[in-house]
Each structure stands twice: as structure tokens, then as C-alpha cells.
Design goal:
With about 525 residues, the protein is an all-alpha fold. Among the domains are: about 70 residues; about 160 residues, no CATH class. It contains 21 helices and no strands. The longest helix is centred in the last third of the chain and has 32 residues. The two termini are about 30 Å apart.
Length: about 525
């Protein structure tokens, strides 16, 4: 361990002392790419907003809308074939636009940061007041919350059982997860419960409250990035390109109201609490307590965010008070939470170990097409551990001022790149940290991971189109194109990790402090 520590510090010192050649002067090509990126982002976001506004015309199951919103929608007929073509184009345009923006930044061009901020915030507001689109997970959340309102446990009772009771929320439950109990943490269940209390018997109103809190969390990360990086124009633009105005992220996180957004925001803010304002500064007990509580809260929504705890432990390793504070903060959140919902909540954590996402790359070797891969859990664990060790060994510390970020990013990347059950919105746990990390080849691998699976899952849970060519595109992209892209990204990660050719920019060593939430 001591050898690893010395090497890690050496890399950090080298990055700080020798930041490398200065960024190239802005050129016409770079500036044109910057504006093309901005235009592409705006166009793809507008397409996605329009698809959300007419959601009930093409996505199933239909969501009964309240007489007076929010949320609101447009009662317009749009063919599923048209939506499919347009949304496939929007996904490719979004990925290409973000890529163009990254190239422009590498050429020294200035992206219009205020425009990126405006697009991201406006899109978030629009998606919040529109019905959940692109995924039916929010309808599952509504059912779990309704189950609690009725006095039952979503870790025991399934949405299918709720539907058989004739409940108005259960009637809108999609069939995909109808036979499954909740696999989300107790804090997620509490959020669903609160939304169900506020939304009553309207599934649209329940999902609105869920999306509202998610959007607040998204904007909280936006404001944190803006405050931390506002003195560095290039880092600031890249952060908002990757997070704030990234159409792919807006579509897979904000538009459908996925709970992963809230988990990512809490985990991100928890790691930021342990920032260094001076080179020799060590966090105290209070900051350790806050960091531990925030990261535990993110894990209390999605258990994989427990991996961020490694970042907290690393950042607080030289301060006994901070370590004890972090442990206390985590215990104060997780222990009462799981005790309150009983042992069934704990058993739910491993409920989906036998599942594989429809586009996982493991299926390429056995032809399972989204079904069970023999020994997939043991295989996923083995590959994850191997890649995590590689990342902890070879990923440079690109943010010495944020000591909790490097280990959290290393294990987070290993998890999202290797686990057999992955969906594009799971990459939010990596993207929120990449936003404060230096530019590197890792950006391109993550962008490819999000772009191709998002394309494959477009336009959403609408069922396979009847037209032959659309059916072929849907099936092939799910079972071949996306898995090949995910496998290629993993191979690329391993090759770059072993070679050390990250092409990483200067390390983040100083920045304005976050808002003084914690002294």
C-alpha cells in the first residue's frame, strides 16, 4: 500500500509541477467546432423536449394526465416510426455535439458557457413539467410509493400485486418489473412515499414530484461546478459540456426522472465537502461527518454509491477525527434507514444479481441476448476487481485539490465499465466526477459508453416498431451495436490503463471554495 501511495503522490506532484505545454491558441476550426457543438446541443435538446411533450402519443403505458398541471403535455398524434427516426438522430447528434465541444476545447476554443448553462437549466425546467419519457422506471417508483402509503412494504409487495388490488396507481404499472419488489434503498423508498402522499391517486402528479426533486439535485451539481470552476474558463466550459448541457445526460436522467440522478448528486456533493483549500489542510470531524452522511445517503438510494466511501476514506486517512466523523455520518444515515424498513430491504440489495441488462457485452460471448449469462455474477465481480485494481494503480490523480475524487472515480469507472447490469444513466456516477477532472482519453470512452446504449434504447419503452427496417435497427443496436461499443470501451480502458497513455491535462490544484455549507 505504501508503494502505491508514494507513486500516487508522485504523479500528483509531477502534474502540479509540470502541467505540460500551454493550450494551443484559439483557431478558426476550433471556434467553428465550438459553435457547431452549441447548435447541435440546442437542436438535440429541443427534439427531446418535443418528444416528451407528446409522450402519450407514442410511449406505453399511457399516463393519464391531470385536468390541471403540472405536469402538462400536448394531445397531438405522432407516429412511432417518426419518433423513432427523429430520436435516433437526436441521440447521434447529441453525442457528436459533445464530441465536437471536447475537440474545440482541446484546440483552445472558448465554448459559450452562459449558453450551455442556459440550455441546461431551461431543459431541466422543461423536462420537469413534462411527463416522464424514455423509460417507465418513474411509474415503478410511483407504485412503490403508493404501496407504502397503503401501509405495505415495497420490499415485500410487488407492483403487480398493487395492480391486482385495482389501485388507480397500480393500473398504470408497466409489466416489465411488475413481479419484482423494490431494489432501491430505503431513502429512495422514502422519497417515493413522499411523492405518493403529495400526488395522491394521480400517477402523473406523483412522477412530477419525483422529477422535481431530481431536477433540484441536478441544478445543485450545476451550481457547485459553476462555483468551483468559474475562475478557469476551459475547465468551466468542459464541466458544463459534460454535465449541465449534455443532451444525452438530460435525456437519460432528467427526462425520465431516474433516481440515479439524486444518488449521483448526493455522492458528488459528499466528495466535494472534503476539498482542500490549502495544500496541507486536513478535514476535521464536522466535514468528515457531512461527507459520510452525504455519501451514505447516495448509497441509501443506490447501493453501488457505497463505492464512493473509498474516496471519503482516502481523503480522511490522515485525520482520525475526519475518519470517525465520516463513519458516524454514514451510520447515522444507513442504520436507522434499514432498521426502519426491516430485513426485507437488505435482501432486496442482491435481488437482481441474476439479471443482465439487455445491451450487456457479456452476451456477445454466449449469445444470450439480454438474458442470464452463466456465472455472470462471479464473472462480473472478478472483472470488476481486476479493473478496479488497474485503475487505482494507473489512473493519475488529476485533482489533488479534491482528494476524494481520484479513488472514487477509479472504482466508479471500473464498476460501470464491467458490471453485467448497466444502463446509460448509471454512468452519471462517473460523469459527475469527470466534470472536475482534467480532460483525458477517459472522456471519449465514457462518451461512447453513453452515446451508443442511449441510441439503442431510443425512443423508450414504446415496443418494437412494426415497420421492418425499424425493427431491424432496434434489435441489432440492442444486441450487437451497443454491446460491441461497451466491450470496445472496456478494452480501450484496459489498454490505456496498462500503457499509461491517458493524455491527461494539468491537475486541478486550486479553485474558489464551495458555498459554506460546512465550515
Amino acid at each position: 500500500m505504501s508503494g502505491t501511495t508514494d507513486r500516487r503522490q508522485g504523479v500528483g506532484e509531477q502534474l502540479i509541477t509540470h502541467p505540460g505545454p500551454a493550450a494551443p491558441a484559439r483557431d478558426r476550426v476550433g471556434q467553428r467546432l465550438a459553435w457547431l457543438a452549441a447548435a447541435g446541443i440546442i437542436c438535440s435538446v429541443l427534439i427531446m423536449i418535443a418528444a416528451s411533450a407528446v409522450r402519450n402519443a407514442w410511449e406505453h403505458p399511457r399516463i393519464p394526465m391531470p385536468a390541471g398541471g403540472p405536469p402538462w403535455d400536448l394531445s397531438t398524434h405522432v407516429s412511432l416510426a417518426l419518433v423513432s427516426w427523429v430520436m435516433w438522430g437526436a441521440a447521434l447528434l447529441a453525442g457528436a455535439s459533445v464530441a465536437a465541444g471536447l475537440v474545440a476545447l482541446n484546440r483552445g476554443a472558448r465554448l459559450p458557457v452562459r449558453l450551455l448553462l442556459g440550455v441546461g437549466i431551461a431543459a431541466t425546467a422543461a423536462f420537469t413539467v413534462l411527463p416522464p419519457t424514455g423509460s417507465t422506471d418513474a411509474l415503478d417508483y410511483a407504485s412503490y410509493g403508493r404501496i407504502v402509503v397503503l401501509g405495505h412494504s415495497p420490499y415485500v409487495m410487488t407492483p403487480g400485486q398493487l395492480r391486482r388490488l385495482g389501485d388507480p396507481i397500480g393500473r398504470n404499472e408497466p409489466t416489465t418489473w411488475a413481479r419484482h419488489v423494490s431494489v432501491y434503498g430505503p431513502l429512495a423508498t422514502s422519497e417515493e412515499w413522499a411523492a405518493a402522499e403529495l400526488g395522491g391517486t394521480s400517477v402523473a402528479r406523483i412522477t412530477f414530484w419525483l422529477k422535481l426533486w431530481n431536477s433540484i439535485a441536478f441544478i445543485a451539481v450545476v451550481l457547485a461546478l459553476e462555483r468551483m470552476l468559474r475562475s478557469d474558463p476551459a475547465r468551466r466550459a468542459r464541466a458544463h459540456l459534460l454535465w449541465t448541457a449534455n443532451p444525452l445526460l438530460l435525456w437519460v436522467l432528467v427526462a425520465p426522472g431516474h433516481l440515479e440522478l439524486l444518488a449521483a448528486a448526493l455522492g458528488f456533493l459528499g466528495l466535494m465537502v472534503l476539498r482542500k483549500r490549502e495544500p496541507d489542510e486536513e478535514p476535521g470531524a464536522l466535514r468528515g461527518l457531512a461527507a459520510g452522511a452525504l455519501v451514505a445517503a447516495s448509497a441509501d438510494i443506490k447501493i453501488n454509491y457505497l463505492l464512493f466511501g473509498l474516496g471519503v476514506a482516502w481523503a480522511a486517512r490522515r485525520s482520525r477525527a475526519a475518519l470517525f466523523g465520516a463513519a458516524a455520518g454514514g451510520a447515522l444515515v444507513l442504520v436507522p434507514s434499514y432498521l426502519g424498513f426491516g430485513s426485507a430491504a437488505g435482501r432486496a440489495l442482491i435481488a437482481r444479481n441474476y439479471l443482465a441488462s439487455v445491451d450487456n457485452f457479456y452476451q456477445l460471448f454466449v449469445g444470450s441476448h439480454g438474458r442470464y449469462v452463466p456465472g455472470q455474477f462471479a464473472l462480473s465481480v472478478t472483472v470488476f476487481v481486476a479493473v478496479a485494481v488497474l485503475m487505482l494503480w494507473r489512473l493519475p490523480d488529476g485533482a489533488p485539490a479534491l482528494p476524494a475524487v481520484w479513488p472514487a472515480l477509479a472504482v466508479g469507472v471500473a464498476w460501470v465499465f464491467t458490471w453485467s447490469y448497466q444502463l446509460p444513466w448509471y454512468d452519471s456516477m462517473v460523469i459527475c466526477l469527470l466534470a472536475v477532472y482534467p480532460a483525458s482519453r477517459l472522456d471519449w470512452l465514457v462518451l461512447a459508453r453513453v452515446t451508443f446504449p442511449t441510441f439503442a434504447l431510443m425512443p423508450g419503452n414504446a415496443g418494437f416498431p412494426r415497420a421492418h427496417v425499424l425493427n431491424v435497427i432496434t434489435v441489432d443496436s440492442l444486441y450487437y451495436v451497443a454491446p460491441v461499443a461497451l466491450l470496445a470501451a472496456l478494452v480501450g480502458l484496459i489498454v490505456i490503463g496498462l500503457s499509461g497513455r491517458w493524455q491527461m491535462g494539468p491537475a486541478l490544484t486550486r479553485y474558489p471554495p464551495l458555498a459554506s455549507v460546512v465550515p
